[in-house]
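for the writeup, i need someone to sanity check this before i put it in the appendix. the sequnce is what the collaborator sent (i think, or maybe the updated version? ugh). structure was predicted straight from it, no edits. if anything looks off just tell me and ill rerun, i have time this weekend
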Amino acid sequence: MAGKIDWRESFNLKHPSLKPLWVRVTAVALCGGWAVAEIFIGSPFWSILFGAAAAYMAYVFFISPERVYFNSRDDKPEE
């Protein structure tokens, strides 16, 4: 099928708009903050979900071996 969208591309964290450090820190902080807010609201399911998203983003952005992608200055996507 032509034009079929792969749902896995929605979870691609190697997007050029995520290269600036402040954007990555803000994304992790917002998800982590939302997880804490959900704890206080009383929704453990959503708290775990947002906490896991924050942990995954923190790993990809700052810990994983692929973090070198975010430190490079070229705007060309990797192939």
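The longest helix spans residues 21-41. The chain has three helices and no strands.
thx in advance!!
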